[in-house]
Amino acid sequence: MTEHSLPRATDLSQFPITQRWPAQHPDRIQLYSFPTPNGVKISIALEELGLPYEAHKVTLAESDVKSPEFESLNPNGKIPAIIDPGGPDGAPIGLFESGAILLYLADKTGQLIGTTARDRAVVTQWLMFQMGGVGPMFGQFGYFYAFGGKAIEDARPLERYLGEVRRLLGVLDGQLADRDWIAGDFSIADIAIGPWIRSLETGYGALKDIGWSDFPAVEAYRDRFVARPAVQRGLNVPARD
User: Fold this and answer.
1) 3-111 CATH fold
2) pLDDT, tens digit, for every residue of 169-212?
3) Signal peptide span per the entry (predicted)?
């Protein structure tokens, strides 16, 4: 092999985030995340797809997510974000927003998004259901039920978000009554929804007050989701400690 035919080392120096979180394997997808419901969507997808990646722990502290290095990749200052050294045009690409990253990875590999245009439309529909409904409403419920908002004496915010959580669980329970996965085959829509369902117990400890027994199809769905080996691996990436 001649000098000119040697493969070039991937150069990610154009991304300032790599100054604070250096890439040990710059030829792999770089994941900047923390194991929250939004964060583990991407580690689970990468595990399910079998894509090589390197995980960097970016905590939720402002010193991390609001740092100039992180905001150079995601100006919104939220995890997760990625750099793919093998972007669509052969050049590295940086992306943020978990739903956008899931779509990108599915399109990159041709997996987890169905095999037809109709499949893709249905999967995308349920992905947007999570992004626009499940994530924001479950997150606000968690804040008022288990975190800082629980000290607020006015019960109306918690009541509102509890009602929305139950309403959304009812939608999911109906959709899952006769199928294992939300859009037919296992897809990025399940990867988006599953961690938020799991968070109702593991993150908030709220199953009793939600009336969990009213949603048996969702309970079975959560168990199927968590039992997947790739999900088990992705749920703890990056490690908290």
Assistant:
1) Glutaredoxin (3.40.30)
2) 999 999 999 999 999 999 999 999 999 999 999 999 999 999 99
3) none
pTM over 0.90: yes
The secondary structure of the chain as a DSSP string is --GGGSPPPP--TTSTHHHHS--SSTTSEEEEE-SSHHHHHHHHHHHHHT--EEEEE--SSHHHHTSHHHHTT-TT--S-EEEESS-TTSS-EEEESHHHHHHHHHHHHT-SS-SSHHHHHHHHHHHHHIIIIIHHHHHHHHHHHHSGGGG-S--HHHHHHHHHHHHHHHHHHHHTTT-SBTTBSS-HHHHHHHHHHHHHHHTT--HHHHTGGG-HHHHHHHHHHHHSHHHHHHTT-S---
What architecture is domain 117-232?
Up-down Bundle (1.20)
